[in-house]
Amino acid sequence: MQGYDPSAFPPFAVTVDLAVFTVRAMRLHVLLVERGQDPHQGRWALPGGFLLPHEAAEQAARRELAEETGLSCDTTEGLHLEQLRTYSDPDRDPRMRVVSVAFTALVPDLPEPRGGGDAARARWTPRDEASPLAFDHDRILADAHERIGAKLEYTCLATAFCPAAFTLGELRQVYETVWGVALDRPNFRRKVLATPGFVEPVAGGPRRTGARGKPAALYTAGPARSLHPPLLRPEGRPR
Amino acid sequence: MQGYDPSAFPPFAVTVDLAVFTVRAMRLHVLLVERGQDPHQGRWALPGGFLLPHEAAEQAARRELAEETGLSCDTTEGLHLEQLRTYSDPDRDPRMRVVSVAFTALVPDLPEPRGGGDAARARWTPRDEASPLAFDHDRILADAHERIGAKLEYTCLATAFCPAAFTLGELRQVYETVWGVALDRPNFRRKVLATPGFVEPVAGGPRRTGARGKPAALYTAGPARSLHPPLLRPEGRPR
DNA sequence: GTAATAGTGTCTATGAGACATTATACC
DNA sequence: GGTATAATGTCTCATAGACACTATTAC
Asked: Disordered: where is this region (chains A, B) (predicted)?
């Protein structure tokens, strides 16, 4: 990036798009908004919006996340938000040149969005019922899904899908839901507990989850951020 | 990304920045250019430049790669190029609002760059002698280095640093150079050969490498793109 | 009792780390 | 010969996968 005439640069619009995932009822859900304006009006799309003039992409993404989920900025402060990649195909928006920085967010099961911001409507949609989306958002969603699946393998990110206190069964369901596979319960338990700092036991007594079976002990997310060695998907598929 | 007035969007300049790595003489090198113009004139920086009006970021990155390395477009066609992330801090360029999409490229040992394009000079610099760079390029370089180190673990990317035919000793040196650690030779060999499609033997006879020791057999990159199970760094450090 | 989930224990196969040994080149 | 690297083999330990078994709840 050297040698340029600032008055002669080609102008672009820069936006952020968000793939916000949650696990509810054993299914992976993604937050979608119904478009109220012209390009692709009435179709569903990932939430997002323009960068403000003095705003970094991360800030814009966090602002949009708060607007679209209807949560306070304090609540969204602690949510996991991560840059995915940037989409810059010249034809991705029919009206103008728009470069979009995509982000992935992982949230615990939240109340239905209140449709804030400038979106006509917003709702949680099962990931496999999301397509087709407006613009290139099918592609962004696929990339985001693949990314979170891969990150579950070598990070402690799965706890971001869980409430503050959770059972190992709930944590295992996160893996099973995102990966779409069944995991061996005893082996999963052993692996998680053998990783220092992944989860930490809660002093209080156990609670029942589905009102069936033995009550499970509660855990909270530990200080660790990565898994060594990783917890690989069964039949680890190539990227 | 919904609901906007195309005439009212805040304008941004969009650039690409490249972290081009190679391994030469057992050290990791990165391609740098000396800035010829005003912001940070005379300082070293990562190569890069503006997106053309109808160009995707990937195209712009490949074009800049060809210009800066002085290679033909045919040659750069097959080189590994991968989007790293986007840097959008409002103050990252002192003159205007510039959003930069950073890419990482891995190339075999190439001839000294001819300083093409609009860069005053270009040269290969040992990675640990690169700082300080202009703008936020120290940060970009650090992110890129961490990324390629991580990708060596679970992809077959190391062959991108090697010429068409290479010895297992040369491949091992790639890992040792990028990771900055020494690896056990027999175990490395066993691991690589046990991964189907990572490398494939060359029919022709062996060749000598450093004119010392037993001549090594030659291999070419195989069709595999990922490593299962991964080849983890010793004392795998957390991200 | 049955059903369902939590939690413990055990066996085995695989893979990685450590390291000894042999082979083949140049000096 | 000495040195340096390639290539093969061996041993051990850690881990993952499979799966049996017990524990505790709701019905």
From this structure: 204-239
Instruction: Classify residue B46 by its DSSP letter.
Output: -
* Domains delineated in chain A: 10-153 (3.90.79.10), 155-221 (1.10.10.10)
Strand-pair category, A13-24 with A98-106 = parallel
Q: Does A113 touch chain B (CB under 8 A)?
A: no
Is pTM beyond 0.85? Reply is yes
Instruction: Report the distance separating Cα B49 and Cα B71, nearest Å.
Output: 17
Residues with CB under 7 A from strand C: A 167-169, 185-187, 189-190, 206, 209-210, 212-217; B 184, 186-187, 190-191, 194, 208, 211-215, 229, 231-232, 234
Dist. CA B185–CA B175, nearest whole Å? 11
Residue of A nearest to B84 (CA): A85
H or E, element range at A168: helix A168-179
Cα–Cα distance, B56 to B48 (Å, whole number): 14
Beta pairing partners, A18: A103
In the structure, how far is the CA atom of residue A206 from the C1' atom of nucleotide D15, in angstroms?
29
Q: Is B151 helix (H, G, I), strand (E, B) or coil?
A: helix
**What tens digit of pLDDT does each residue of A33-84 get?**
998 887 888 999 999 999 999 999 999 999 998 887 777 777 777 889 999 9
Classify B129 as helix, strand or coil. Answer: helix
| CA-angle at A21, arms to A17 and A24, nearest 5° | 150
Contact present, A86 and A1 (Cβ < 8 Å)? no
Residues of A in contact with B55 (CB under 8 A): 90
B27-40: pLDDT as tens digits: 999 999 998 887 88
pLDDT tens, residue by residue, A152-200:
999 999 999 999 999 999 999 999 999 999 999 999 999 999 999 999 9
Q: Quick check: A8 contacting B, CB < 8 Å?
A: no
Q: What single-letter amino acid sits at A134? A: A
Please state whether beta strands B13-24 and B98-106 pair in parallel, antiparallel, or not at all (unpaired).
parallel
Residue A191: exposed, middle, or buried by beta-carbon count in 10 A (0-12, 13-18, 19+)? middle
Q: Helix, strand, or coil here: A37?
A: coil
- Top-confidence residue, A122 or A142: A142
